[in-house]
Design goal:
single chain, mainly alpha, 64% helix, elongated
Length: 174
């Protein structure tokens, strides 16, 4: 009896997992590149917006190692991570447009009224932070900030992966 090796994941699921991995890793690479090479300081909301991409990258890598049905289930979790990234990007865009205040205390200035000078100095953060409502524009002639581009990317990536997942599910049931 001859034993033949079969890949743990089907070709379609492998392509979807690689797409998911690329969709989650790209914004992280871009953000870290801008932070390191362009010396842009991320605000606290920017850092929170990276979390779904970190989780999605790890889950997509895990999906590459899992067999068929388990890989497809994990890929749906990656899709959920991308949908969460849309929500976080929308919250950040709303803060940038001054539609609402940031839900993070680190983004809002502390209320220092009634404190002595020593108490005010003690309440200052050790590391200067960037305000969440101040936009950075990547191109001077284009009035679209990094946050708005991030929102457009999150919507596009989540939509793309959702449609690929639904297409693959429909093909399996036909």
């Amino acid at each position: 009896m001859m034993c033949t090796w079969r890949p743990a994941i089907s070709a379609g699921a492998r392509k979807t997992a690689l797409l998911a991995l690329a969709l989650c890793a790209f914004p992280l690479s871009f953000a870290w590149g801008m932070q390191i090479f362009e010396h842009l300081i991320p605000c606290p909301l920017c850092l929170v917006e990276r979390w779904p991409y970190y989780f999605g990258t790890a889950l997509a890598a895990l999906a590459l190692a899992l067999p068929g049905r388990a890989a497809r289930a994990v890929l749906w979790l990656v899709t959920a991570c991308l949908l969460v990234s849309v929500g976080l990007a929308a919250v950040h865009a709303g803060v940038e447009f001054h539609w609402w205040k940031s839900p993070l205390a680190a983004c809002n200035a502390p209320n220092l009224t009634g404190l002595s000078l020593a108490e005010r100095l003690a309440a200052m953060p050790a590391v200067p932070q960037r305000p969440c409502e101040d936009p950075d524009y990547p191109l001077p002639f284009l009035p679209i900030s990094f946050v708005q581009l991030g929102l457009l990317y999150a919507i596009s990536a989540a939509t793309m992966l959702l449609f690929v997942q639904l297409r693959d599910a429909r093909r399996r049931f036909e």
